[in-house]
Design a protein that fits this description.
By secondary structure, this protein is mainly α. It is built from 10 helices and 2 strands, in the order αααααββααααα. It folds into 2 domains: 121 residues, Cytochrome c-like domain (Cytochrome Bc1 Complex, Chain D, domain 2, Orthogonal Bundle), CATH 1.10.760; 74 residues, Cytochrome Bc1 Complex, Chain D, domain 2. It is globular, with a radius of gyration of 17 Å. It starts with a helix and ends with a helix.
């Protein structure tokens, strides 16, 4: 598929809701608070983890969170730190946990001044590059705008199952993009939306976008 055409399709979300959950169980946030007690050591009591290697779960979207829990439990998504954590959880348990964390407010990690080195060897302002790729993509290489699915302010699209990315740890975002690019993370559905995006991104673009997202609001 032509890179620019594919980028346009992805930017406008026309490749389908590949991140939709397997089971659309209605979650009970109040019940989920008790069930989520075991999650707090890594992800924080309100889903705002203090450690960059553990993602913030607060406000990511109930549909997205439920799918990730289902995928981790079924081993469709490999997260070594989560091994065995969900074995005893029912579908309703996971729906309740997802509802609890989705109800919380994301605290911004914050962006930082940054220089990144392009493949040409030229060093550029990382914040400016991150903003450009997030908002407009890179039509020359076929990278679509992140804002097409995750919204201009990074709030995501909860009904479609596209997560909020605003405020997430930059280190975590960068790792996920690199994992999608390498094919180490594959739970983005048959349309391979995130793999289709990440495969065209350079290290500089990934690091710049991740840093920009951390402070986007």
């Amino acid at each position: 598929m032509n890179k620019v055409f594919r980028a346009t399709l992805i930017s406008f979300g026309l490749l389908g809701a590949a991140l939709s959950s397997q089971v659309n169980a209605a979650g009970d946030a109040a019940n989920g608070e008790a069930l989520a007690a075991a999650c707090t050591a890594c992800h924080g009591a309100d889903g705002n983890s203090a450690i960059a290697s553990f993602p913030k779960l607060a406000g990511l979207g109930e549909k997205y969170l439920l799918k990730q829990l289902q995928d981790i439990k079924s081993k469709v998504r490999d997260v070594p730190q989560m091994t065995g954590q969900l074995d005893a959880s029912s579908e309703q348990d996971m729906a309740d946990i997802a509802a609890f964390f989705a109800s919380k407010t994301t605290q911004l990690s914050g962006s930082k001044e940054q220089k990144v080195q392009l493949n040409s060897g030229v060093k550029v302002d990382g914040l400016k590059l991150g903003a450009k790729v997030y908002r407009a993509g890179n039509h020359e290489s076929g990278v679509p705008a992140c804002s097409g699915c995750h919204s201009p302010r990074g709030q995501g699209n909860a009904p479609a199952g596209y997560p909020r990315v605003s405020g997430q740890h930059a280190e975590y975002i960068a790792k996920q993009l690199k994992d999608f690019r390498a094919g180490n993370r594959t739970n983005d559905g048959d349309a391979m939306i995130m793999r289709g995006v990440a495969q065209y991104m350079s290290d500089a673009e990934i690091d710049a976008v991740a840093n920009f997202i951390a402070g986007l609001n």
